[in-house]
Amino acid sequence: MWKYRENRFDLKVIGYQFCDAPGDRFDDNWLIVRIKVQDEKNGNWEKEDPALLTFEVKELIDWFENLDLESNEEKDISFTEPNLEFLYMGKGHIQVLLDLEFLPPGLRAEWTYEKNLSAYSVDFLLNKNDIDWMVERLKSGIAQFHER
């Protein structure tokens, strides 16, 4: 679990959304993921949703493995479902952006066609061990639930 001040974040691959692969690249590869979050504004919450595709988990692993924690260059990674996004702000500072099904209890999503108004951020100052932990966590999930 990532920890920074009062903030906590955990991400775990739980399984396929559909047990039987119907033969569609997307439907065959949706993964249910569980997040556990804690922050000082909204306390603790846990949510599960089919928020990532198998190949998006691989992209996320690559993104983390190629992250330069000494760099000041901002970079982000987002996914087909807009529930989860990671934004690297430089010098080890990462924001986890949560939306829609992953918002804290009681918060509602607000969207316009031009802009997402509701993304909720939880900040972390991470080191290489934190990144390595997340990479191993994701690799273990994708080893069980590979691309079909």
Taking all Cα atoms into account, the compactness measure Rg is 15 Å
Bin the strand percentage.
35-45%
**For this structure, what is the CATH class?**
Mainly Beta
Side-by-side strand order of the widest sheet: 1-2-3-4
What is the CATH architecture term? Roll
What's the β-strand tally? 8
CATH fold-level assignment: Transcriptional Co-activator pc4, Chain A
Residue share in helices?
10-25%
Q: Give the SSE order as H and E letters.
A: EEEEHEEEEH
Gross morphology is globular
- Oligomer category: single chain
How far the N terminus sits from the C terminus, by CA atoms, comes to: 28 Å
Count helical runs.
2
Major beta sheet summary: 4 strands, antiparallel
- Low-confidence spans: none
Number of domains: 1
Q: Would you give an account of this structure?
A:
The model has no long low-confidence stretch (mean pLDDT 91). The strands form two sheets. This protein has a four-stranded antiparallel beta sheet. Helix content is 20%, strand content 39%. It is an alpha+beta fold and 148 residues long. Strand 6 (84-90) and strand 7 (93-98) form a beta hairpin. It has two helices and eight strands. It is globular and about 45 Å long. It has one domain (2-144): Transcriptional Co-activator pc4, Chain A.
